[in-house]
Specification:
alpha/beta, Nucleoside Triphosphate Pyrophosphohydrolase, 6-stranded mixed β-sheet, 4-stranded mixed β-sheet
């Protein structure tokens, strides 16, 4: 059998990576640094010869490989078998949340026990078998060729172990870098490692907020839900976040709400924002159902967003926007009720990430 050369790359950064939140097989998009990393990877590899491009079918992998696919004029062949390990009921939780809620189970997970099963997920042994089978199938199908595969940290971890003989339960020392090429050979059923991406030898993809202590911007966000579990989202101008405009997006969709005023609690801000942006008053907002923290561009500056989300059952209605601020009148371009299925399949920017998953979770 002729030797096959395979370049394995992890997807770019996501906000859930920053939050240390379990992504698993949830369809989390790249954040602004991740999008820049995808462009940097395309520049790095555009002079390489590739015969085929494969990718996990999850959005963060596809968004990473698309710029290079466009440069090379090669189609992307997707495979669900290249997805990250399915972490079942832990998906969407932060590692800190998991450790607090399931300390003994999390310890087994960290020990890399091959038969440990997170409810609703897959064991490490099953995941390793899935990845090993798929990578070997790709290599055998394209004997003697050079193949690019873009996937996830777990997939690259299994690739590293296949090539080095490191056991599933053993600690792997070199990190899996975002959007960095790692080179392997496959020949006569055996994997060898040509080159693993070295963190010390690679320049970090810079962002305008690097090296700064960003001012915290706490905000309350509302998710009004109708009888069909559709959520009301506003369409915002990318003037609010020019970096999205630079990426070619004329607008983005996001939940209603806004920043806390001085001395205001999240609950009080949620009630105020709901009344100002929809006209609804005296509505029970309930408990916080989700939170997120990430670097956010607002106008020309960057902040550390700290957003808390409230889900409210309102039924379908048309927002009364007479309470809008001047900024909202300028930058809110419209509104729409979205189903989880529409959010999962749209090519538009929709925030928060994995809102389709959150809607299904709220349905239960």
């Amino acid at each position: 059998m002729a030797r096959t050369r395979i370049c394995l790359a992890r997807h770019g950064e996501t906000n859930w990576n920053l939050e240390r939140r379990v992504q698993g097989q949830l369809n989390i998009p790249l954040n602004v640094r991740g999008a820049a990393q995808a462009q940097a990877l395309a520049r790095e590899l555009c002079s390489e010869h590739f015969d085929r491009i494969y990718s996990s079918d999850l959005k963060r992998a596809l968004q990473t490989v698309t710029p290079l696919s466009t440069r090379l004029g090669l189609p992307i062949e997707t495979s669900a078998r290249l997805r990250e390990k399915d972490d079942g009921d832990w998906q969407g939780m932060t590692f800190e949340d998991v450790d607090r809620a399931f300390p003994s189970d999390h310890a087994r997970h960290r020990q890399r026990q091959a038969d440990f099963l997170i409810p609703g997920g897959e064991t490490l042994a099953a995941f390793a078998e899935r990845v090993a089978t798929e990578l070997a199938a790709i290599a055998q199908r394209h004997e003697g060729e050079t193949i690019l595969v873009v996937a996830h940290a777990g997939v690259l971890d299994i690739g590293y172990r296949l090539a080095t003989g490191l056991g599933l339960s053993e600690k792997r020392d070199p990190p899996v870098l975002h959007a960095a090429p790692n080179w392997f050979f496959y020949e006569d059923g055996r994997w060898t490692l040509e080159r693993w991406a070295d963190e010390g030898a690679r320049a970090r993809v810079a962002m305008p907020y690097d090296g700064r202590t960003l001012e915290r911007r706490p905000a309350a966000r509302l998710l009004p839900l109708d009888a069909e579990n559709r959520v009301l989202l506003f369409r915002y101008s990318t003037r609010l976040s020019p970096i999205f405009e630079e990426q070619g997006y004329p607008h983005f969709w996001g939940s209603i709400g806004g920043a806390l005023e001085a001395g205001e609690t999240f609950d009080a801000a949620a009630r105020r924002e709901l009344a100002e942006e929809t006209g609804l008053a005296s509505v029970e907002i309930g408990d916080i159902v989700f939170s997120r923290a990430f670097p956010m561009q607002l106008g020309a500056d960057w902040f550390q967003a700290d957003e808390r989300f409230y889900a409210i059952r309102t039924g379908e209605f048309s927002p009364d926007t007479r309470g809008f601020t001047d900024m909202e009148r300028s930058d809110v371009l419209g509104w729409k009720w979205w189903s989880a299925a529409e959010i999962a399949t749209t090519e538009e920017l929709v925030f928060p990430e994995a809102l389709d998953w959150l809607l299904e979770k709220l349905r239960r």
